[in-house]
Design a protein that fits this description.
alpha+beta, seven-stranded mixed sheet
Length: 189
């Protein structure tokens, strides 16, 4: 299975159907005031980055990051096609989202998910990825139908390697040249 993960194309009618199915799946799990999934319009706001996982032309999963405050984003709209669950798609989407966030210097990702048995596989996925239980964040309040989790992302530290100045390079194999410490520069890679 070749899985591709790309930013959402909101003109794709299949995306709208996939996201509607997500809302339909979770509708019976909790009262309306305890449901916090974003609809298609909510996912199109400038502070949300929605990613779509596909196999060929078939949408098999989604995941989004929504800005909360500088350096802190919320994981939203994680869904795998029920026919494809257990194939590692959610893990791949989550890894992709975390890499995207880390590459943009986001320091913390938090999420809200259901407390019901229906959401147990999702909670297990998040725990395996290093998310831990936390208090409500953002505009959330305590709710017996919700579980709140968070993960602190390690900062990306660029590696540094020495760069030899042209005048210090030796053209013959096996030849060496002594350098004073002030003649060696470093370059971020």
């Amino acid at each position: 299975m070749h899985l591709s993960i790309e930013r959402a194309d909101f003109t794709d009618p299949n995306l709208g159907a996939f996201l509607r199915a997500h809302l339909d799946d979770i509708a019976p799990t909790a009262p309306a005031e305890s449901q916090h999934a974003l609809d298609l319009r909510g996912l199109q706001t400038p502070d949300v980055r929605l990613w779509v996982a596909s196999v060929g032309e078939e949408i098999v999963g989604t995941g989004a990051l929504a800005a909360l405050e500088p350096g802190h984003e919320e994981l939203k709209s994680m869904r795998t096609d029920p026919e494809r669950r257990g194939q590692g798609i959610a893990t791949r989407i989550l890894e992709h989202l975390l890499q995207d966030a880390q590459g943009r210097y986001i320091r913390r990702i938090s999420l809200e998910t259901g407390s019901m048995e229906f959401f147990a596989p999702a909670r297990a996925l998040y725990a395996k990825a290093g998310f831990v239980l936390c208090s409500p964040f953002g505009s959330y309040t305590e709710d017996p139908n919700s579980v709140f989790m968070t993960k602190t992302l390690a900062p990306i530290v660029p590696s540094i390697r020495p760069v030899m100045p042209r005048s210090a390079r030796v053209s013959r194999p096996g030849a060496t040249r002594q350098l004073s410490p002030r003649r060696v520069r470093t370059r971020l890679v």
